[in-house]
Amino acid sequence: MSDAGSTRRPRLRDLGIAIGTLPTGPWNAITDVPGVRVGHQTIVRGDGPLKVGEGPVRTGVTAIHPHEGSVFASAVPAAIGVLNGAGEITGRSQIDESGLLESPILLTNTFSVGEAHRGGVEWLAAREPGLGTDSFVIPVVAETFDGTLNDIAGQHVTREHVVAALEEAASGPVAEGNVGGGTGMILFGFKGGIGTASRAVTIGGTPWTVGALIQGNFGDAEDLLVAGVPVGRELLRDESDLDAIRRGRRAERGNAGEGSVIVVIATDLPLSDRQLGRLCRRGMLGLGRTGATGRNYSGDLLLAFSNHPANRVAAANRDPILSSVRLHDRELDVVFQAVIEATAEAVLNALVAAETMTGRDGITARALPVDRLVEVMGRYRKIDSAG
Hints:
Elements: E1 37-45, E2 57-65, E3 74-85, H1 92-98, E4 100-101, E5 105-109, H2 113-125, E6 140-144, H3 159-168, E7 186-187, E8 190-191, E9 193-203, E10 206-219, H4 231-236, H5 239-250, E11 257-267, H6 273-289, E12 299-306, E13 313-314, H7 333-353, E14 357-358, E15 364-365, H8 370-379
Parallel strand pairs: 5-6, 11-12
Antiparallel strand pairs: 1-2, 2-5, 3-4, 3-12, 3-13, 7-8, 9-10, 10-11, 14-15
Helix pairs in contact: 2-3, 6-7
């Protein structure tokens, strides 16, 4: 089933809580960047004790198209950043070498990277003449671990799910929380998953957009920060919240605070791969603003791309000299701010959107108590009365 564009739950700003000072795009999503499309396939099946290969299943796949056409036929500048490397993005060495992204981005669970990779190859090969004979592609697939709730060893994500996510990807509002690759994820001890946000900036009199989408599966409840407020510690002071939070911490494989996050940063600004690498590093600051610490067993990986038309590299172009444009570095400060704010808000949107989920062996990841969040933020005078 595809979840892109489905009816959404309340988001952080619906609660009167804003992150940063820059304005958002119309949907406050990565799809505010013109041409970017997102699709989900969510797989929820079965209950009770784990039977490897049968379930319970709590997983999925998320697909991101960098622009409105074929990214293989028209590659875009890109860069990857690593805060802590206990995770995987396939195709990283090629992006590091060429500074280009030439496949859609797929997000899934750790053990389904191979099937997502295979599905991505088959989807591309069916659409790109000469692929596999005159040219090759290394699909970009990123992962986080959902084995706490999901029969991850059963590898329930299929090539059909991957193709459906790619085919059904769309612009507009993006479903968040327990959807796509984020279906079985846990975030700051609560239910986590997919989250997104965007920021609008004006440079040289021209409007531009920066968007972020995260697949969040990390963090200890006591570290959770919302707009600088130590929400996690405040919740831990309330005896009524202790049991749920402790269950969430146990669900993190006995390693409180460890886990992983994938951050995808998109913009229509004309940026070089070097500048996009700088955006990845600012995305790390955005994670830090929510309480992330990049612990030893965390896979904290970030990918940034620019889909500005003048900087795309056509596969059919045989010109010996390529031209491109780029933003002057002195104009980057507001872009850095946009990345930091959008990344932080995307993490928090994932938390607010996610619903309580019970997975294998009756393990339950509780939803963040939104009423308590609002109460705590109000006490710190961080609630917008107009929100």
